[in-house]
């Protein structure tokens, strides 16, 4: 069954509430003060069913200028508006402001109800109709039906109902697969049931027993019951006026402006990127950093407008802006909003949100206009791909990106899978929903090749660099992304990964005769040193090896396994180390354990060599330390 929400709009005392009652049989003035004063103060709710079975939720808004903030809390989720103009008064200040608000929120459908026709004659009514048509020119209501009606006599009600049915049929059906989101416009308690909230279900659906989160308060509760137009239901869907009975929370913990959603699908934000259009009739330009009242969903939040490309925005002008808020907002891209000036309080403009988790922009930053255009005009695939490109080699995890896009988690997974299949995105880990932009990935592989080439130029005698050192060359590069890039490069035959070492496949260590002779001299020095090898610097000084590439000859010995570096300045020849190992093993088999002092005496060396040797054999899992002694591993 199709669901549509209609809102009223218009000046105070033009008969909105009486007309809603005549249409639906429901008096939307529920507050005692409203009854006593005869005016609508807060939002009122009613419903009707058209002849074709469409259910229409009706939101009756207050018309007094003091209660425009309440009006704004009700019109955010409407599909069409019924602008009410009293025939005996015509267009008034709140008529204009309410219509401007609906225009800013991009309400697509609507009509005008000319009320109180029983108070005017035919000639006057004809004049008011013409004045109204003139007033509506250039607005979304231009050319829409204007229906004269009297709630008192019933004149015109049938025509109004027929017109409503025609308009309702033109309202497109809601997408039910989106994120469940219900901005709260009313909170109350019912004896025996507990806390109840109401609102227009913006998108998605919710069922009884579902676990939901109250944003931005980080509270999770259970849906105890649901009602649509006073009828209990098992499920509520997008487009319905919905009452939700929540379990495990008190009324005082909730306020208008809070949002119900699924856990983890939204993140409170203090910054918003948006388009902003100033109304043409505002009395003065809007200056950079002006303090304003942002009306979003059912919330009103104070904040400042950052004009990114100018110092002030003139009447009727449009610009890209960033809002920096004084309280957290819950929103999605493409949400419409309205701003009102801080003082005096009046509606001055509105627009569409583009990014709900933006970076803090610098004014005049290059490329911002193009960035915003992509966000404003792109499909979900375009937007995700654009953000993926901005994330460079860090990529995006779908669970973390989900609050920045209006589609559901399942839809986002499908978008990512489609882009991956088309070769535009690369999965770092599909199970974790972690993707990189393909161009960013290719740029990363190119950058890694360049770093390896630079390393080989600087260290021609080394077989390669360590994985960790290579990774640190690219700021913020995750180990898993690095390994994926190297895996691709290795598959392509461009690099070789050997344990924790990486080199270009084309790199080969080539020693000329002079260096080959020098290498043998370095090796001979450590071999001759036996159990007490010389310090590295002593060998370099003796062989007159300066600070050039020749110093890396020692590393060549280490890489080839002909020498072992125990510490920075302690190097043993492999043959000597094997003799030490054999001597130690024989001692332990005879005596079962050995102390550092005994080991020193066994080899005839100082502590300078004994301790590094013992630690080396521990690291090789030959021995294990027990107290201050060593034993053969597995023999303790």
Could you tell me the mean pLDDT?
A: 90
Radius of gyration (Å): 38 Å
Number of domains: 5
N- to C-terminal separation? 77 Å
CATH architecture identity of the largest domain = 3-Layer(aba) Sandwich
User: How many helices?
Assistant: 19
Low-confidence stretches: none
Q: Look up the CATH topology of the largest domain.
A: Rossmann fold
Q: Largest sheet, if any?
A: 8 strands, antiparallel
Please give the CATH class of the largest domain. Alpha Beta
Indicate the proportion of strand residues: 25-35%
Total DSSP E strands: 34
Helix/strand class: alpha+beta
Helix percent band: 25-40%
Q: CATH homologous superfamily name of the largest domain? A: P-loop containing nucleotide triphosphate hydrolases
Judging from the principal axes of the Cα atoms, what is the shape?
A: elongated
